[in-house]
User: Fold this.
Amino acid sequence: MPKILIIEDDPLIVAAVEKTLTLEDCFSLEHVSVPDQALPAAIRLRPDLILLDIRMPGGDGRAVLKALKDNSATHDIPVIFLTGMASEGDKVVGLNLGADDYVVKPFGAMELLARIQSVLRRYRPETRHGLIAVSGLRLDWNNRSVSVDGRLALLQPKEFEVLYLLASKRGQALSRSYLIENTSSYGMDVATRSLDTHIKNIRRKLGKRGDLIETVPKFGYRFQGPHG
Assistant:
């Protein structure tokens, strides 16, 4: 049973999420309302997914997300922002900080449920594929880890998914829409811009091996390199 942690100060929103999750009758929900409690709760509970408000008394959800991503115990836990901040710029900032999705309040129950299920599908153990070793890179889906010439590279979860998909189909030109549909959450309307940012970050973190990711003009990206 997937465990969801919601970090939200509004009891009405918490109640709405709780009611939404009962539609499937297969989730457990934990709740904290104070930003300072977020990281300790995530470390203690190890939830399968976190729903995180941005604007809370006494703290900013973006700072909470950074703390979660900087901690080795919580780095890989997927996060969905729940917020009333609906501008494209706000969404891009949230996604580039490492959030897996961005749901604007007020939200519909079925939309929220679909987005939760979409994120969880990408993290379920049964969808893991194993190891890829190519041109000095070693990608381990089970551990969600990447090493470059024997050195560990710290990628955000979405960055890992993009790199893994490219490497698993090396030599093939993958369109931006294909990469978005297979690594992004349901209904993201700013995913193309975010994808390009992820590619830029991946290349930087891979160092000289970042050249393995080739831009295909007006189409998408291709991963070059034989097995190795």
Remarks:
- Residues 186-190 have pLDDT under 50 and may be disordered.
